[in-house]
Design a protein that fits this description.
The chain is mainly alpha-helical. The chain is 64% helix and 0% strand. The chain is built from 16 helices and no strands.
Length: 354
């Protein structure tokens, strides 16, 4: 089915599962994914998870109690507030999309943020594994025409307009589950698999919303998601350290002679600067690959994606200007900086510079 066409649905309103995109050859060794022939198995696998059926029943009841009689407009407004509150750069870029695509992007983000937060609240008493099982169940129910709650109500409306596949969303949940263990990543291959699952998959979900005709757009979409996740990791080193986490590959720390004890103490020495430059260069390579796919997107989506990627990429420069202090300073682009970036991004799009 060409991107942008409506998914087929039967008389009961159940959406057929969207076809999985073709495998991305340049990522298969670093970010292995199931063969496309088996993606339907993922969509129908056991979703009971931990916590048992009683926990899932309780979570479903709580969702219904919170949702009330959400209209589609209310559901999208809920998603908009989540995006505006939690992701200012993403939200700013989304404002340059046409209204229908803009609302769909908010629905996608609200889901991603909701499940990602499960891994960021280890001491909250939330049974994260049971919550993940609940969201797997809720997703599949939504694709079967039975949405519950504001996020899934908006998601169901999005499915009426865009052919957003289910399988990458389930892989995203697998990525969040990786996060729950808190185990460090030994190699970049390990980190890259995690980044693919929690962020590269978002590129696969956004692609049919943005619009594309050439499947070659999917590889860069994944790479752009990975680039942004790598940027998140570098920006949030201090916050993650405070939570007892390290997302940098241990092989990289050893390569530059920088230890976990150094990280825990917030040491900024020559070894740390060299390590950060290495990680920044890696993220830059993913941005370079990802931005090459912008020209393959629908024209009305190119400015929004180019601007979002450019602003996120600028965080890497802010880290440098902050003297690599990611322990006590959070690198960000100011509102004035965001406004100032628009003409340059627009001009590069017009002249083929992106």
């Amino acid at each position: 089915m060409p991107a942008g066409e409506l998914p087929e649905h039967d008389d009961a309103g159940a959406f057929h599962l969207a076809a999985a995109p073709q495998p991305l050859p340049h990522l298969t060794t670093l970010a292995p994914r199931p063969d496309p022939e088996h993606w339907d198995d993922i969509a129908h696998r056991d979703i009971s998870g931990s916590g048992g059926s009683n926990t899932l029943t309780r979570l479903r009841a709580e969702t219904l109690a919170r949702s009330g009689a959400f209209s589609i407009a209310d559901a999208y407004e809920h998603c908009r507030v989540v995006a505006r509150t939690a992701a200012r750069t993403f939200y700013y870029g989304s404002l340059f999309l046409p209204p229908e695509k803009r609302r769909a992007s908010w629905a996608l983000y609200a889901f991603c943020r909701t499940v990602d937060d499960l891994a960021d609240r280890p001491g909250s008493g939330v049974d994260a594994k049971a919550q993940l099982a609940f969201w797997r169940h809720a997703l599949i129910a939504t694709y079967e025409g039975r949405p519950e709650g504001p996020v899934m109500t908006a998601w169901a409306d999005m499915l009426r307009r865009f052919d957003v596949p289910l399988a990458p969303t389930l892989e995203l949940l697998d990525g969040v589950e990786m996060d729950l263990t808190g185990a460090p990543f030994e190699t970049f291959a390990d980190l890259n698999l995690y980044c693919y699952r929690v962020a590269g998959t978002v590129g696969l979900l956004m692609a049919p919303v943005l619009g594309y005709a050439d499947p070659d757009a999917l590889g860069p979409a994944v790479d752009l998601g990975i680039a942004m996740q790598l940027t998140n990791i570098l920006r949030d080193i201090g916050e993650d350290r405070a939570a007892g986490r390290c997302y940098l590959p241990l092989e990289d720390l050893r390569r530059f002679g920088y230890g976990l004890d150094d990280l825990a103490s917030g040491v900024r020495n020559a070894a740390f600067v060299a390590l950060m430059e290495f990680e920044i260069a890696r993220a830059e390579a993913f941005y370079h690959s990802g931005l090459r796919g912008v020209r393959l997107l629908a024209p009305d989506a190119r400015l929004a994606i180019s601007l979002s990627a450019t602003l996120y990429r600028a965080i890497l420069g802010r880290i440098r200007r902050n003297g690599y202090d990611v322990f006590s300073r959070r690198a960000h682009v100011s509102r004035a900086g965001k406004l100032a970036a628009i003409p340059g991004v627009w001009l590069r799009l017009r002249t083929g510079g992106l």
